[in-house]
Write a structure and sequence with these properties.
This protein is mostly beta strands. It has 5 helices and 48 strands. It has a 22-stranded antiparallel beta barrel. It has a 5-stranded mixed sheet with strand order 3-9-10-7-8. Strands 4-5-6 form a 3-stranded antiparallel sheet, with no helix packed on it.
């Protein structure tokens, strides 16, 4: 608590010092830079986006695209990637389960992925300053010093970067400029929260050379408390040893806490007119707790079966392990009454394995973007990026001191990408075109220890993955008249993937002693997987009036293939084919009543084929497996609405959607694997992470108080209908509908000083943000990620 108080005091003192008279005199001639103010633009739809290679107004871009300015992010207190899901329709962003470490489960229009394992590609592409981020591991980005965020819905097959099937989220940082300025911000709040963030823009040679420095520190205590079961429930603990010190309150730790530091250094150089270089380096060090978890229920008879030792065939864990050792079974005694507590220890007391309940994500990135005006009608652009990442995390799936499943994981990933674009126009800019090429190379190592006493297995692994991607693309816009345009594009992609795995296995012996016998060692290099694909796009748009545009488009995209990433035998190391999406879309974008009302409506249909889903079955050797397979096709239909209204000081925004995302047909694999029909998705069932309805609405009112500044109360509502969290069809994996309301009261003085009091989840609505159902795998537990409770925050921000 003392350290927290010191950090907060330093943060707020620094912010207040920035407003002192001495600094005010020193910077008297400095104007705040665009976007550095504490209030947002009058109309967020006036944002300029670059989703089609060229800068266009958001409302004039014939795409299903949403955008939020950096000033709007600050005004609404949106600081992490998850929070932007409430700014656009058909977008689901939620932290992955603790079993997947620091990942962001990302779905757009019912298409997405949630597995951190690098054997497969993300379905929703993340781009930081046009550099594609290729791994779900470590994808919980902070919204640090951004110019804007762009969310593109639907396949992005012919545009920038790497092909993505579900959509793309672009984070565009503020560039250095010729004006001295910046901001400082400090936040305190629930769970000992301390946030410090800021940036400084320094011109070095007028408008020819500038540097921008940005940084954040964010920390807060976890909102789920881990208790020592033997301390809290001695009568039910059998001979389990006590972990908490004598006289303590039985608390042994917390889950869901954060401790993050990040910074970025950006340099912009304009040596001569028509030549611009942007260089940046960023680094993030995340030392947060494991993700928050809660145990809902255990197996129905508390006897859990798995492969076990060869001569036994069946491994009843309670009978052969826990009862002989501790005199108790794994059962509902470990289900707590408080939704924000659990009994996880991250230990196996039988073998002595003990894991530190901490995660680590350390990543760095370098980018070099160069723009050259070759002639008045021809421009060349080069985008070079390199990133490396380490993600380390632990998992205690049973949330008890009994060691059913205890896991340690480490993912290392590095990537290099290069994109070249040649942009031109002709016939007095009636024709605009882009041709380009993209190269991507990624290498990953996944090391793990899976202490699976529930299955009678001790299974370390050391796997290596490699991917190489070449693509070429062309994009053409023809302005037939001042109001009518036709756009066409095509991309060719060729990709190869390699996979080597090393999986030694040991089998636990009965008796609760922790003794094992050696099992088989799987040391195998899979044949190289290679595939290619053509992705076309065509669209037409027409301006009915100056502020009303209609458009229609057809586009395609695909998600790359991969390998079964968690095999037990060589027969289970099979490849999985790519999945494909054909998308049809019509829309209208309008600004009415002197641009006070913005109303955008989109209708779409996506034909989703060769869907990759995890299913359970038996391989050709008779060994059970759980693996991703191409299981069938789906049809996704939906309607999306985006609207904003300004009436004097009143602002209202709405993002809503209806989504009908269902399996159309299912099929068993043709590679000799025995998959029971019940394990395949059933026609007519809803896709995972595809709620039928989502509604996000916000309202605020600016109260002008003369020389005292402006007071801005704001409320945001987020509604989501019931959602499935996996493809099993089990009702246990479905979360009912829920509504969450947030509030924020901001006092803004001039354009450079603000104080905001925020409350999230005002009515303390409890819901499960993720459900990890292992009943279907005979692991005997139903584990959820509990929603965050009601929290308050106080933020002081000074722009200078």
């Amino acid at each position: 608590m003392r350290i927290r108080a010191i950090k907060l005091s330093l943060a707020l003192s620094t912010v207040l010092w920035a407003n002192a008279a001495v600094l005010a005199q020193a910077l008297a001639s400095v104007e705040p830079t665009s976007g550095e103010t504490t209030t947002a633009p009058a109309d967020n739809t006036d944002i300029i986006v670059t989703a089609q290679f060229r800068a266009t107004n958001l409302q004039d871009t014939p795409l299903a695209i949403s955008a939020v300015s950096g000033a709007e992010l600050a005004r609404r207190g949106l600081t992490d990637i998850q929070s932007i899901a409430n700014t656009a329709p058909s977008v689901t962003l939620t932290p992955g389960p603790a079993a997947f470490g620091k990942t962001m489960v990302s779905y757009i229009r019912g298409v997405g992925a949630n597995d951190f394992n690098p054997a497969f590609d993300p379905s929703v592409g993340y781009y930081v300053d046009d550099i594609y981020y290729a791994s779900l591991a470590g994808s919980t980005f902070d919204l640090m010093d951004l110019e804007r965020v762009e969310i593109l819905r639907g396949p992005q097959g012919t545009l920038f970067g790497k092909n993505t099937i579900g959509g793309a989220i672009r984070l565009i940082s503020k560039k250095p400029n010729e004006t001295l300025g910046g901001y400082l911000e400090g936040t305190t709040g629930s769970f000992d929260r301390v946030d410090i963030r800021g940036s400084l823009n320094i011109p070095l040679a007028g408008d020819n050379l500038a540097v921008r420095l940005s940084g954040i520190h964010r920390e807060r205590r976890g909102y789920v408390t881990r208790l020592d079961f033997a301390c809290a429930n001695p009568a039910q603990a059998g001979s389990l040893p006590r972990i908490a010190p004598a006289g303590a309150d039985c608390v042994i730790g917390h889950d869901g806490g954060e401790n993050i530091d990040a910074f970025r250094v950006a340099v912009r150089a304009v040596p001569v007119d028509g030549m611009e270089f942007n260089i940046s380096f960023d680094h993030t060090d995340d030392r947060s707790d494991p993700g928050a978890l809660r145990l809902i229920a255990t197996g129905p008879d508390a006897v859990l079966n798995g492969p076990g030792i060869p001569e036994a065939g069946v491994f009843p864990i309670n009978t052969y392990q826990f009862l002989p050792k501790y005199g108790i079974s794994y059962d509902d005694r470990f289900v707590t009454n408080d939704p924000y507590t659990n009994y996880a220890t991250y230990r196996n007391p039988i073998t002595g394995l003990s894991l530190e309940p901490k995660g680590r994500v350390r990543q760095s990135g370098f980018s070099f973007n160069a723009d050259f005006d070759l002639t008045d009608n021809l421009k060349f652009r080069s985008i070079t990026g390199y990133r490396d990442m380490l993600s380390r995390f632990v998992y205690d799936s049973d949330l008890s001191p009994l060691p059913l499943v205890t896991q340690w994981n480490e993912v290392r990933y590095d990537q290099l990408s290069q994109e070249l674009q040649l942009l031109g126009d002709a016939l007095d800019k009636k024709v605009e075109w882009v041709i380009g090429g993209y190269y991507f190379k990624g290498n990953a190592t996944y090391t793990s220890i899976s202490d699976l006493l529930v299955a009678g297995l001790y299974a370390p692994s050391n796997d290596r993955f490699a991917v190489e991607d070449f693509s070429a693309f062309a994009h053409l816009t023809v302005h037939l008249t001042d109001r009518l345009n036709i756009i066409g594009g095509i991309r060719y992609t060729k990709e190869t993937k390699g996979f080597h795995l090393f999986h030694p296995l040991d089998f636990y012996l009965p008796g609760g002693t922790g003794a094992t016998i050696p099992g088989p060692v799987l040391d195998y290099t899979a044949p190289t997987l290679a595939y290619s694909n053509w992705d076309p796009k065509i669209s037409i748009d027409y301006k009915i009036a100056d502020d009303v545009m209609v458009y229609a488009q057809y586009s395609t995209g695909f998600r790359g293939g991969g390998f079964n990433n968690r095999p037990f035998t060589a027969a289970q190391v099979f490849s999985v084919s790519p999945e494909f999406l054909d998308a049809y879309e019509v829309g209208i974008k309008s600004r009415l009543f002197d641009r006070r009302l913005t109303l955008n409506l989109t209708a779409f249909q996506s034909d989703y084929s060769d869907i990759q889903q995890v299913v359970a079955g038996v391989d050709t050797s008779g060994t059970p497996f759980s693996a991703p397979l191409n299981v069938g096709d789906a049809r996704i239909r939906g309607i999306e609405l985006e609207s904003s209204l300004r009436l004097g000081g009143l602002r209202f925004n709405l993002a809503a959607n209806y989504l009908d995302a269902k399996i159309k047909s299912a099929r068993a694999p043709d590679n000799g694997l025995a998959v029971p029909p019940s394990a395949l998705p059933q026609p007519g069932t809803r896709l995972a992470f595809a709620p039928e309805y989502r509604v996000n609405a916000g309202i605020e009112y600016e109260v002008t108080m003369g020389d005292l500044g402006t007071l801005i109360p704001r409320f945001d509502l987020a509604y989501q209908s019931s959602v499935k969290y996996d493809s099993t069809g089990s009702s246990l994996s479905t979360e009912p509908s829920y509504t969450v309301v947030d509030g924020r009261l901001t006092w803004a003085y001039r354009d450079d000083l603000s104080l905001a009091l925020g409350v999230t989840n005002i009515f303390e609505k409890y819901y499960n943000s993720f459900i990890f159902n292992t009943y279907v795998q005979d692991l005997g537990s139903l584990v959820v990620s509990p929603s965050r409770p009601r929290e308050w925050s106080l933020t002081l921000r000074k722009a200078f």
